Amino acid sequence: MSLTLPLWAAAAASLLLPASAIAQTPSMDALWPNEDGLAWTYAQHYENHSSPQVVDNRTRLRFDGAAVAPNGIEAQYLRQELIGSAPVAIAVAVESGLTDPFLQHLWIARPDLRQRIVEKAAGGSCPTSAPSGSYAVLLTGELAYRKTPDEIAAWRCNTVDTRSWLWLAADLTPGSEFTLQLVPDLAGDVFLHGTVAGVEAVTVPAGTFGSSVRVDYVIDYGRAECTDEFGNPTGSYRSETRGYIHYAPGVGPVQSYEEFIPVVEQTGNCGTGPVGERASLASMALESATTPARRSTWGQIKTAYR
Fold first, then answer.
1. Could you tell me the maximum CA-CA distance found in the chain, to the nearest angstrom?
2. How confident is the model at residue 50 (pLDDT cuts 50, 70, 90)?
3. Where does residue 2 fall: left (phi above 0), alpha (psi -120 to 50 degrees), or beta otherwise?
4. What is the mean pLDDT of residues 136-154?
5. How many CB atoms lie within 10 A of CB 27?
6. CA 257/CA 244 separation, integer angstroms
7. Are 264 and 238 in contact (CB under 8 A)?
8. Domain parsing of the chain, residue ranges
9. CA gap 104, 208 in Å, rounded
10. Rounded CA gap, 42 and 283, in Å?
């Protein structure tokens, strides 16, 4: 399966699945098991076309104990770690000093917010602890993960009652949508939009997973205003990240793909480069999933061998 399949062509195809496939849509709870100790190892691929760079490495997500968000919200620590190779810093990380991929994209998309973004990150705005060598925005760790009957989300660690991300909502009917405002303390027009594209088989290094639910995501970074050297308005533009994640029932996220497009639309004269051109892409493909070891009592062991 090629990860360079056009995003929206693939989404359209998945919406045409037969009724039998749609009827077998698994529950949200099954799409991301969250027992403490579960781990997923991914082959990660990153390409930066603005300052040509290609990175291939391996990364792992795993649940590692409890986390608590403000107001006593109980969550799990979704840890992320790089495996077996030295991290490679991308140009924007070096220039901005930011480690989190989402904040890196926001820094590019919103020059008007750059100083505030860096200040918030330095002050402990969550998330900030993404490991060097992490490139994906849609599927990432170092977050306070929380699953409820209604959603699977991540919560801000230092801001009361504020979610930092939303992966899934309980309604998995193909075509259903959800929206979350991101970083409301920085801007009022940065949003995550999710759409359930359908149910399909997906093949990754770990194998082929049937009945995987594909969710398409769009991050709208809001509108950036452009000015000339004298501070006079000259136009505006918007940036987006577009991509998807496949979730396999009983396994979890098995594949993600995303593209960052610095200019999806433009008014006036901003001198920002071609409209609709991809600046970078990132993908993650599952290599293996690890189940935590289970401890048995002596009574359970004797019962098993009777």
1. 85
2. confident
3. beta
4. 95
5. 11
6. 6
7. yes
8. 7-304
9. 33
10. 9
